[in-house]
Amino acid sequence: MTSHLYHGIEEVAGSTPLVRLPRWEAAHGLKNIKVYAKLESFNPGGSAKDRTAAALVKDAKESGRLKPGTMVVESSSGNLGIALARQAILEDFDFHCVVDPRTNQSTLGMIRAYGGTLHPVTEPDPETQDWLTARKNKVQELLREHPEAINLDQYSNRAAFSAHSSGTMAEIFAALGHAPSRVYVAVSTTGTVGGCIAEVTARGVATEVIAVDAEGSVLYGGERGERLLPGYGAGMVTELSRQQTPSSTRRVSAIDAVRQARALGQTEAIAPGASGGAVMAALLADLPSLKAGEEVVVILHDGGMPYTNTIYSNEWVRENLHVDLES
Q1: Mapped to the 3 state alphabet, what secondary structure does the chain carry?
Q2: Cβ contacts of 303 within 8 Å, gap of 6 or more
């Protein structure tokens, strides 16, 4: 193994491992079909949002909006909050994060640990009953109170696309040495899936980029409903989602995401977050359509550690999803 000296933690982000899942393949009787997982939990902040945060900050610096000491206000369901709190230390700005009750307590703790200021919303938007809309409304309120502050707006900022086209998707091509037949990507802001689509389009290959959305999400024509898990799905149509179209969309229930996150952990010793469970559930449902020789990539946006009190807790699942996984 070649050792490497890094001159700052910012150099560690990206170049995450692409790992084959042979035990998962065998458990589902796959022959002549290979499944690989892109493990974004290996980023220093624990998720793919390290890439997004770095790209958003770079864009704001280059435009002159972000300078040392600038107050930055952003909405996040969790991972981007951690990533931007880290960037605030590295780039010397003041980070304020608007969160809602679905955010994991450990995630909130990490944002505080990095010096971020939390602004929780306690009620969903009264008109739509949507937490994301409530968070965005709170962001606008804070910007009115602090006119010197800026918002990077992960929901419309195209810098997110570049983070995942020249980063995530390009790394997948490089690791495989060729184009996979399918890539499954959980969607929320849709920055990751948009970046993957951009890279596939630029290379002119036939890779299908499949968006994995939550039941109850309004992205890509979905019908609004209750969503309990952070990390995938959205209660509003993001501006980024209007700028690209996945090959197809799969909608996954919360309990299916929970079951398949746990199944992957117990099969491959890779315990993903909620969105990773949704991605595995989508792939599982699609297995009958796979053909011999196909190579499939699933992007696992984060790891399961922050979810030990939610999707990996039988008590939480029983109380919130009304399913007894112990029976």
Answers
A1: CCCCCCCCHHHHCCCCCEEECHHHHHHCCCCCCEEEEEEHHHCCCCECHHHHHHHHHHHHHHHCCCCCCCEEEEECCCHHHHHHHHHHHHHCCEEEEEECCCCCHHHHHHHHHCCCEEEECCCCCCCCCCHHHHHHHHHHHHHHHCCCCECCCCCCCCHHHHHHHHHHHHHHHHHHCCCCCEEEEECCCCHHHHHHHHHHHHHCCCCEEEEEEECCCCHHHCCCCCCCCCCCCCCCCCCHHHHCCCCEEEEECHHHHHHHHHHHHHHHCCCECHHHHHHHHHHHHHHHHCCCCCEEEEEECEECHHHCCCCCCHHHHHHHHCCCCCC
A2: 39, 41, 46, 47, 271, 272, 273
Tokens of 297: 């990539």
Average pLDDT over the chain, rounded to whole? 95
pLDDT in tens, 200-257: 999 999 999 999 999 999 999 999 998 989 889 998 899 999 999 999 999 999 999 9
Q: Which residues, in sequence order, are bridge partners of residue 94?
A: 71
Model pLDDT, residue 1: 45
Q: What is the pLDDT at residue 132?
A: 87
Nearest to 37 by CA among 228, 326, 302: 302
- For residue 159 the two structure tokens come to 């810098």
Q: What are phi and psi of 249, to 5 degrees?
A: -130, 140
Model pTM above 0.85: yes
- Residue given tokens 């919130």 in the structure block: 320
Residue type, 15: S
Measured from the Cβ of residue 293, the count of other Cβ atoms closer than 10 Å reads 9
